[in-house]
Specification:
By secondary structure, the chain is α+β, with helices and mostly antiparallel strands. It has a single domain (28-315), classed as oxygen-dependent coproporphyrinogen oxidase (3-Layer(aba) Sandwich). It is built from eleven helices and eight strands. It has an eight-stranded antiparallel β-sheet, with helices on both faces. Strand 2 and strand 3 form a beta hairpin. The longest helix has 26 residues, at 233-258. It is globular, with a radius of gyration of 19 Å. Residues 1-21 are annotated as: Disordered. This is Red chlorophyll catabolite reductase.
């Protein structure tokens, strides 16, 4: 990790406005249009999110995720139930702002193909002075469809480096279902966005240390490590607010159009197998991403409380 001093926004409980004070992010107009366009639909979850993010260090990748999260709420609308996550999980932190976090979950409404939408925002300042910032948006579908889930995670371990995970997460074993590849990946053209990001000179493939995780990505997944070199924070910012923002919004729009409202006829055994596979992936995700990492970022009582809420969302357990 590259040591850096991160600049913080002043603490505030107010929602983040469409235009913020101070030096604007490069390329901000691209995201400001999206943020402002959906602001009229802002509800309780939006206000909670904006207030939490406003307390965290100012980072370009959080602006991208804000745009996606607000777009999700605007487009999914009544298909999402109000959040029931307690306040000590939608916002938590430690004295001095060295460890800050926010997790929110919204379940799908009855009759919807949405199972849940989870968003997570984490910041941890390390003893070395560097920081780790992790931002996730996950939308899982239920057994009324076999359409892919949506996943985006951004992991920033320094001011000029970023790991990007962006995928329509497949729910079928792809070699056994070539028609699934054609329907959700080939016909939608989303591989063009993976190709566009791969052509950025600072982008390299990211290899997960988990063999299981590597086996779960789709063939169009963006799984990359953006390394701009020490002192090149502005280069990373331009990449994030430029090609990355454009591709992420386009990939999410494809998912909203072709997957979020999909209903697929399946027999009982097929549906049961699909749901069991989803639960296996959920269990793995919670174990590898949250149960293993949150205790490294937060005090044990905080980590336990947050992981319990995530377990309840994904697995129906505490």
């Amino acid at each position: 990790m590259i040591a850096a001093t991160l600049h913080h926004r002043p603490p505030s409980r107010a929602p983040l406005p469409c235009s913020t004070a101070g030096r604007p992010l490069r390329g901000r107009s691209l995201l400001s249009t999206t943020l402002c366009a959906v602001s009229s639909s802002a509800g309780g979850s939006t206000r909670t999110r904006e207030a939490a993010v406003a307390r965290m260090p100012r980072l370009a990748h959080r602006e991208v995720m804000l745009a996606l999260a607000r777009q999700a709420e605007a487009r999914l609308g009544g298909r999402l139930l109000p959040s029931e996550v307690p306040g000590d999980v939608t916002w938590f932190g430690e004295d001095g702002g060295t460890a800050l976090g926010s997790v929110d979950v919204r379940r799908g409404a009855p009759g919807s193909s949405i199972d849940l939408m989870l968003e997570a925002w984490f910041h941890r300042t390390l003893p070395t002075g560097s920081a780790v910032d992790i931002t996730s948006l996950i939308v899982f579908l239920n057994g009324t469809t076999d359409a892919p889930h949506f996943l985006m995670e951004l992991i920033q371990g320094g001011p000029s480096s970023l790991v990007v995970l962006l995928d329509h997460f497949p729910r079928r074993d792809l070699p056994l279902h070539p028609d699934y590849i054609d329907r959700y990946y080939g016909a939608t053209g989303i591989d063009s966005h993976r190709q566009s990001i791969a052509r950025i000179p600072q982008v390299r493939p990211y290899v997960s240390p988990s063999l299981l995780v590597r086996s779960l990505w789709s063939p169009t997944a963006v799984v990359v490590d953006v390394q701009c070199g020490e002192g090149n924070e502005s280069v990373l910012e331009e990449i994030v607010l430029g090609q990355l923002a454009s591709s992420a919004m386009a990939v999410f729009d494809v998912w909203l159009e072709h997957c979020a409202g999909s209903l697929v006829e399946m027999d009982a055994a097929e549906r049961e197998s699909l749901v069991a596979r989803d639960k296996m992936i959920s269990t793995t995700s919670v174990k590898l991403n949250f149960s293993a990492n949150l205790p490294k970022m937060f005090e044990n009582d905080v980590a336990d409380r947050v992981v319990a809420e995530i377990n309840k969302a994904f697995l129906g357990t505490v």
